[in-house]
Structure formats: structure tokens, C-alpha cells
Design brief:
With 285 residues, the chain is α/β, with parallel strands linked by helices. It folds into two domains: 114 residues, D-Maltodextrin-Binding Protein, domain 2, CATH 3.40.190.10; 103 residues, Periplasmic binding protein-like II (D-Maltodextrin-Binding Protein, domain 2), CATH 3.40.190.10. It contains eleven helices and twelve strands. The strands form three sheets. Strands 4-3-5-12-6 form a five-stranded mixed β-sheet. Strands 9-8-10-7-11 form a five-stranded mixed β-sheet, with helices on both faces. β3, α2 and β4 form a beta-alpha-beta unit. α2 packs antiparallel against α11 and α3 packs parallel to α4. The protein is elongated and about 55 Å long. The termini are far apart. The relative contact order is 0.17.
Length: 285
């Protein structure tokens, strides 16, 4: 009641409230009223689901996986109604962001070295790391470019007035694989002074598509998604370490569907999508 104030009962030491009925009948009425309020509250409709529960799943993925990851995410959303959003960039750039605690639920790496790095920094859960795809390397030129026989002389001739675009061999997986292949094939001395290192492999691909560079060293799957380029040479698989795509749950993940997406990524539907886009899936664990 408005205006009620506590008074100390000098005999019992208990607090009573002036203006409130403290008789047995009054107390019973108050208890009954309380029970009715609780039951009424329980009968009210549940509050709407908060926007936080509907937030999308966030995946940081290597740039070379863009089309594949987007197609896999669409299939996953069809099955689960969970939306997936991406941040695509060079694997090294993403690894540093994951290490710094960026809000990613999954990390997809284009090589084992960067996955090992974030694992050692406790930025991903080590027991969730899976390898799910592989790839190949090619040299591309503008559409309708002739086939190029791989030799120091031929490369020198093509690059005499231009540069070889490729992902940075110091930090980006595609560049590391590419340099290893060129070294193995005895071609590195012919191109090392004519390199145009790029932040990621898709930028290298775009430089040829725009006509800024005569050649680019890219993944086979990159060449398949860019109609303005043509494959002029394939680099033998044995010339470089196996190209390994790995995924893991991040230590900072918050989305409850993250484990399900990781499982889906390593499952038959995702493998079907990857294979259709030129990725190798038969020989990975």
C-alpha cells in the first residue's frame, strides 16, 4: 500500500508494515494473491527470440575458397536455417586476426603452417582441426594465350616486359607452394627478379584478368572461376608440398551451430560441392 512504512515491533524485534493487514486472514489473502500473480505470469506468451540468437555464423576463410565456401554455406543454410557470413582474405592475414581474438567461429586455412600457428597460440581448438580438401597449381595468362612449355628461357621471354603475379611467397600459402614448385622445377632463378608479390592469390589472378601482368601463378580452382584467363601451364603435383585446406573451431567462438558447420564442411554434401569446383577431396583425411 502506498504510504506503508516499516515499524519495529519492540517485543518481537520483527518488522511490520503500517497500513498492511498482518492478521492470519490477511496474510493468507496476500499469499493467495502472490500465487495467482505467478500463475498469471506463467500463462503469458514467451518473449520473442532475441536478435543475438539469430545472429549469423562467422567464418574466416582463405580467399581461394570463396565460391566453394559460399556454396557450402548455402547448402548448410537450407538444411539448418542457420545463416553463414564470411571474411575472405589471405590465410596469414586471417590467422593474425584470429590470434588477436577477432569474432570468428571457424577458421579455414589454405595450409598447415598457419593452422599450426593459430593452434600453438591457442586461438583454435586443436582437437577440432580437420583437413577437408586439396588443390593444384597452374600458370595463367589472358584468355586465348598459347600453351607455355615450362623452361627458364620461355618464362624469361614472357616476363621480359612484365612480371609474374603470385601470392607473396613469404606469407601466403599459394605463394609458398608456388615458390616450392618453381624451385623444384629449376625455374626460380628465371622468375625471382620478375615477381609481383600479392596479398592473396585472388589479387594475383585479377592482375592477369585486367591485363596488368602477363602471367600469374594461382590455384587450379582460381583459374576455373575467372573467364578472362586461360591456363597456359600446369605445375606437377610432385613439385610442391601437398596443398592442404584445413578448418577448425576458434577458441573465441560463440555460435552454437559452429560444430555442426564444421561437421558439414567435412561431410559428403560439402565434398560434392568442392569436387564440382575443381578441388581434390579423394585423398584427404
Amino acid at each position: 500500500m502506498i504510504g506503508a512504512r516499516p515499524l519495529l515491533n519492540r517485543c518481537s524485534g520483527r518488522i511490520s508494515y503500517k497500513g498492511l493487514d498482518a492478521t492470519p486472514g490477511g496474510l493468507m489473502f496476500q499469499r493467495l494473491f502472490f500465487v495467482l500473480c505467478v500463475l498469471a505470469a506463467a500463462a503469458l506468451p514467451a518473449p520473442p527470440v532475441s536478435a543475438t540468437d539469430e545472429r549469423p555464423l562467422t567464418v574466416f576463410a582463405a580467399a581461394s575458397m570463396r565460391e566453394a565456401m559460399e556454396a557450402i554455406a548455402d547448402a548448410f543454410e537450407e538444411e539448418t536455417a542457420t545463416k553463414v557470413v564470411f571474411s575472405f582474405a589471405g590465410t596469414g592475414t586471417l590467422a593474425r586476426q584470429v590470434e588477436a581474438g577477432a569474432p570468428a567461429d571457424l577458421f579455414v586455412s589454405a595450409d598447415a603452417a598457419w593452422m599450426d600457428y593459430v593452434r600453438d597460440q591457442d586461438a583454435v581448438s586443436a582437437d577440432t582441426i580437420v583437413e577437408f580438401a586439396s588443390n593444384g597449381l597452374v600458370l595463367v595468362g589472358l584468355e586465348e594465350s598459347p600453351v607455355l612449355e615450362l623452361s627458364p628461357e620461355n618464362l624469361h621471354a614472357v616476363l621480359e616486359t612484365g612480371r609474374l603475379a603470385m601470392a607473396d611467397p613469404e606469407t601466403v600459402p599459394a605463394g609458398r607452394y608456388g615458390k616450392a614448385a618453381l624451385v623444384t622445377l629449376g625455374l626460380w632463378p628465371a622468375v625471382s627478379a620478375r615477381l609481383a608479390p600479392m596479398e592473396n592469390v585472388r589479387i594475383a589472378l585479377a592482375s592477369v584478368a585486367r591485363g596488368d601482368a602477363p602471367l600469374a601463378l594461382v590455384y587450379r580452382t582460381d583459374a576455373m572461376v575467372e573467364p578472362a584467363v586461360a591456363v597456359v601451364a600446369e605445375l606437377p603435383q610432385q613439385s610442391h608440398p601437398p596443398i592442404r585446406y584445413l578448418a577448425a573451431l576458434t577458441s573465441s567462438r560463440t555460435h552454437p551451430a559452429a560444430p555442426a558447420f564444421l561437421e558439414f564442411l567435412n561431410g559428403p554434401r560439402a565434398r560434392e560441392i568442392l569436387h564440382s569446383l575443381g578441388f581434390l577431396t579423394d585423398k584427404v583425411n
